[in-house]
Amino acid sequence: MRLLIAGPNKTIYLDASPRQSSIIDLAYPVKQFEPLRLASRFSENVKIERLEESVTISWENLGASRKFDLPGQISASVRFRAAPDDKSIIMTCIIKNKSDKSIPQVLFPDFMGLLPFDGEANTMFRTAAFEVAPFNILKPVDETVPFYATGLLHKGNGWVEYKSGKYRSFSQKLVDWLDFGGINRGFSLFAKRWGPEDPHASIMLHRSETDGKIRLLFAHSITIAPGEEWHSDEYWLTPHQHGWAEGIEPFRTWVKKNWTRKYPLPEHIKKGMGFRTVWMAKGVTNDSLDAIFHYDDLPRLAKESKEHGLNEMVIWFWCPYLQLPVQTLDYLGTEQELIDAAAECKRLGVNLNLFISVLYLADPTASRYGLTTTKEASWTYHPELIPIFNPPYASWNRSALAVQSDPKWQNDVLASFKKFIDLGLTSFVWDVFSAAPTKPNLYDLAEAIRDTAFAHDPQAVFAGEGGCDIGEDYKYLDYTWNWNWNWPTYNDFRAFTSVFSTPRLNVNIDNSAKVVKYCFADNAYMNIMPSTPDGINASDMIVNHPEVSQALRQCAKLRQQFLPYFEDGKLIGNCILTSNCDSTHVSAYVLPDRVLVIMINDADERHIKFSCDPAYWVHSETGKFKVNVFNSDGVLVDSNKNAPGEWHGTTILLKHLDMTLYEFLAE
After folding, report:
1. Of 663, 586, 606, residue with least CA distance to 629
2. Strand 462-466's sheet: what is its strand order?
3. What pairs with residue 58 in β-bridges?
4. CATH 3.20.20.80 holds for 267-350+403-561
5. Would you list the domain boundaries of the chain?
6. Exposed, middle or buried by CB within 10 Å (0-12, 13-18, 19+), for 167?
7. Per CATH, is 570-666 categorized as 2.60.40.1180?
8. Measured between alpha carbons, how far is 251 from 80 in angstroms, rounded to an integer?
9. Tens digit of each residue's pLDDT (9 = 90 or more) over 564-576
């Protein structure tokens, strides 16, 4: 099977022989051979029905990977039809189980034979949460010889799996939409569904050692019982020639149709570039020597935060965690001192947000709800423990997961929140924001908390360590407080930011000026949490990290200078470019009559040559644009006009991590 996408050069995206091509593949374990597959590539007597705007391919009896006499038959059909946007192809599948055995897995859509049509380094696999070069990361590693069935990226097992839904590692979430390609060609693909998805659905990639081609598939772990039918969701495939930002448009339209959120995003979160986290103590609740900061230090910390462009501050270990009711820590100050400090922070322009952890409960609270704590659910850690996290001899924070539908727990949690809301502390970050299926659950509780806080303060904030069930979490969370979005490297979730206004996804920053600038360019919500040498997270002043301090001040000034782009512009990332720009981080924002391009030099000192096409994204009556060029401090250094067509430019001299900004104004 060969797939051709119409374009200037008729780029071939997929090229596979009949035996190595696929669109539908099923697991069908039988006694003679449990690994048996039924698939289109093993089948004969295919039927093709052509209508004006659709093509349906049917197999009355899917062929098997091994020759056995199988009872009954499995039929399948895949329909391709033109989408109403005149850009996309809609794919649907129907499986009919006419046998006496269940089908435990369906692979659909299943594309074998994808080519590195933009080169192996630049043909990217992108989801809403990250971007990788699959042809590179799936190359076998020759230095070691692990067990072939489990040795990821080694001989015989060049597979990688990305799972969406709840309880997945952060690097594997937000895969409802994907893109395969580069800045000049490729395709986007998403399933047209909304709300909690099948937690067993995943995307898998495989690189063949035989021909180096990629297989990309959606794996559905389902059960199709004898006599039943399975109907897939609609999968929208959108070819594009201007990068993922063009391909994502049908998904953006689908999101807007389903977007219903009760609580407006607080203005300071929408306008802000990030927040600061402060750990008030090291973690032991009855030892005053554990204090790092006290409540009366908070205005000083808020003042420094504001000076660095941060208008939100989250405090950890301000109360004993995993306990109810929630109470302040005496050795940090009095409750009134916390209230007064929060009021002074607000006067300084910084909202104080309280980090709460009551979904897991330790004793004595856990036993009051009939829960038994376990070592496996222990959150015991301290810098003087060896090892620091959960040594076998320490147990003070062994915990148990609360039963979310327990009315006593729900009422006690809401009472604790209401107490602080009545005292004027209306903003909270919820630790482990993941709702159980049985109602009432965490979503019901979050709505009650938000309603109570909103009645006192329409700008009250509710954030959380999100489970990334975006179909529900976005309704409640203003931003995320998650670990490991950007570990071990900076994660590129510009596609998510481009489509979803909430929650704003956080990136944790200790001592990296580079990540500060990348976050600024990408409108990611930076979480500044500098640590002291050999110290714990978020234990230091920002000014003790001069490169980060300078980068924050610089980016804060630029954000204010170009705020309309970040608030209302469409983020298109590096899709403004018409050719790849090595060692350069590029993000662009589109408003109706103008485009802002931010470029960061990630190499040694140099001038960067680049080409871009603002005319594709913004209509100009004359075909011309006025071009303003700014340096890292937002100072205008050049202004000129360009002729119609692509813009070919050379930047000012940029040192390592220097920025330059180009503003294209339609004429």
Report:
1. 663
2. 462-466, 428-433, 351-356, 312-316, 274-279, 525-528, 506-509
3. 47, 77
4. yes
5. 2-258, 267-350+403-561, 360-401, 570-666
6. exposed
7. yes
8. 18
9. 999 999 999 999 9
Strand partners, 286: none
For the record, the structure tokens of 590 come out as: 């589109």
Beta strand spans in 467-520 (E) = 506-509
Say how far apart CA 527 and CA 538 lie, in whole Å: 10
Tally of CB atoms within 10 A around 188: 27
pLDDT at 229 over 70: yes
Look up residue 366 and give its two tokens.
Answer: 């856990």
Convert the pLDDT of each residue in 305-344 to its tens digit: 999 999 999 999 999 999 999 999 999 999 999 999 999 9
As beta bridge partners, residue 528 has 276, 509
Q: For the residues of 551-599, what is the DSSP string, one character each?
A: HHHHHHHHHHHTHHHHHHSEEEEGGGBSS--TTEEEEEEEETTEEEEEE
What are 43's two structure tokens?
């089948």
Q: What is the pLDDT of residue 195?
A: 62
Question: Are the beta carbons of 171 and 132 closer than 8 angstroms?
Answer: no
Contacts of 188 (CB under 8 A, 6+ apart): 177, 178, 179, 236, 237, 238, 240, 244, 247, 248, 250, 251
Protein fold of 2-258: Beta-galactosidase; Chain A, domain 5 (2.70.98)
57 SS3 class? strand
What single letter denotes the amino acid at residue 393? Y
Q: pLDDT band at 5, cuts 50/70/90?
A: very low
